[in-house]
Amino acid sequence: FFSLPVFVQLGLCVSRASASVLNLNCCLILLPMCRVLLAFLRGSQKVASKKTRRLLDKSKTFHVTCGVTICIFSVLHVAAHLVNTLNFSENYNEDFLALNAANYRGEVSQFSFFPGLTGVIMVLVLFLMCTASTYAIRVSNYDIFWYTHNLFFVFYMLLMLHVSGGVLKYQTNLEEHPPGCFNPNKTLRENMTVPKAFEESFPGYTTEPFAENLPVPEPFVQNNFMRICSEEPKFHSHFPETWFWISGPLCLYCMERLYRYIRSNKPVTITSVISHPSNVLEVRMMKDDFEARPGQYVILHCPRVSALESHPFTLTMCPTDTKATFGVHLKVVGDWTERFRDLLLLHANQDTEILPIFQQRRYPKLYVDGPFGSPFEESLNYEVSLCVAGGIGVTPFASILNTLLDGWKCYKLRRLYFIWVCRDIESFRWFADLLCMLHNKLWQENRPDYVNIQLYLSQTDGMQKIIGEKYQALNSRLLIGRPRWKLLFGEIAKCNRRKTIGVFCCGPNKISKILHKLSNSSNSYGTRFEYNKESFS
């Protein structure tokens, strides 16, 4: 290796180093996708501490970071191999034919090998996955993102085949044939040609002394050029290290997918479908042995809508000891949700529809995978929590409010600040009944300060109210405009001195960035804010 030119060594070093980085990231990128494992760790306080569970909230960021790293080092790996292709062609070795990647000097044949072919296909697959993962494509056409991202299985199969080419080799008989030894089976003159470095050190010296058995110069003997080899060199391909890196995580992911398939192969029973204002659909359903914690989400799959496509939705109602019903709220914003709504609603012109039992057979088959963990599960584990929702982002907090309606004394939470920002007044009607029932319950139990509700209407032409006399408790908490976040954080910190407050946000990125910045800023009251966020985009 060290006898090769410097630029050849550099190409090999870069290709090998980038390959090691790719092995590591191809191993780690699968771990955040093991949703069942993450849900188990998040829900087990004995296995994972609170700080560890907070690190699990960064699983999506970790997955994206690994993906970007794979893209960058794949480009570096390809560039290094392009250099290696030319170097192997120009530095063709006639003495050790087994080490040559080309068939003859001047042949550029790296891509004719199996590793080259699989490498080209992997680059194309990776390009499709990366371009379809951009935010613009995910928002405009989620189907493209979903289908191209599932090409990861093809990528991993090609990766395992890619490393089986055996281009790089090592010598297996170093004792019988040490590097630079003299082979007596060949003519002395052919095998004892003075190296170029020796000729430069001893100008004018020729190989004649060797042929005449004359004394060999002392430097030539000291450098072990006269060691005798007993056999020809033998080379063997390196065992691919990629198998060690990706076999474990890949098997773990495949076993989890199999477990999830078995767990979700039985369709749920849809009990009711309710159409809410602003294109929001509520689906209530039942499933045997289904258990979930507030803040978790499920993945819905309807074969009549799409044979392969499925989407995550946060649970807005969790099953309890007294009721087995659970539900989700979904906003109709794309092709999948539109087709799903049309299949569920028999009369699309009706605002609300709760179907009786004898019409259940008209519902399409719906499969539920989950539940899976999310950061919002921690909202009940703080003494004080601040929950901020933007529009349909209220869904994870709805399950928490439903849980508190059933009973709040068994949880650590003692004060909840709930802030909901919407563009139109009708959106508040999604959970207006729930908020009013919780408010009345806490008043009856002499705990009106347990939940602090603030509703903000960001866009309006004038003063509006939520229609209905039963919503008077919410009308008094309805504010026009956007929240003054800095002032709000100051008031919460003042009322909760020297306490740790969990901040949970589900909404636009603009609100999320503001809350994240304020959570990291210090205050004079010794109050600490811990920021949490969840996003499916």
UniProtKB/TrEMBL annotation:
Record field: catalytic activity: NADPH + 2 O2 = 2 superoxide + NADP(+) + H(+); NADPH + O2 + H(+) = H2O2 + NADP(+)
Class of the enzyme per the UniProt entry, highest EC level: oxidoreductase
CDD domains xrefs: NOX_Duox_like_FAD_NADP
GO cellular component assignments: endoplasmic reticulum membrane; focal adhesion; NADPH oxidase complex; nucleus; perinuclear region of cytoplasm
Record-linked Pfam families: FAD_binding_8 (PF08022), Ferric_reduct (PF01794), NAD_binding_6 (PF08030)
Key words, A-Z: Cell junction, Cell membrane, Cytoplasm, Disulfide bond, Endoplasmic reticulum, Glycoprotein, Membrane, NADP, Nucleus, Oxidoreductase, Signal, Transmembrane, Transmembrane helix
Enzyme Commission (EC) number: 1.6.3.1
Keyword Metal-binding: no
Primary localization class, coarse: other
Sequence ranges assigned to domain FAD-binding FR-type in this UniProt record: 263-378
Gene Ontology BP, a term: superoxide anion generation
MF terms (GO), sorted A to Z: NAD(P)H oxidase H2O2-forming activity; superoxide-generating NAD(P)H oxidase activity
Positions of transmembrane segments: 20-41, 62-83, 113-137, 144-163
Location in or out of the cell: Cell junction, Focal adhesion; Cell membrane; Cytoplasm; Endoplasmic reticulum membrane
Signal peptide region: 1-19
PROSITE patterns linked to this entry: FAD_FR
Annotated membrane topology: Multi-pass membrane protein
Keyword Ribonucleoprotein: no
Function: NADPH oxidase that catalyzes predominantly the reduction of oxygen to H2O2. Can also catalyze to a smaller extent, the reduction of oxygen to superoxide. May function as an oxygen sensor regulating the KCNK3/TASK-1 potassium channel and HIF1A activity. May regulate insulin signaling cascade. May play a role in apoptosis, bone resorption and lipolysaccharide-mediated activation of NFKB. May produce superoxide in the nucleus and play a role in regulating gene expression upon cell stimulation.
Designated name of the protein: NADPH oxidase 4
UniProt gene name: Nox4
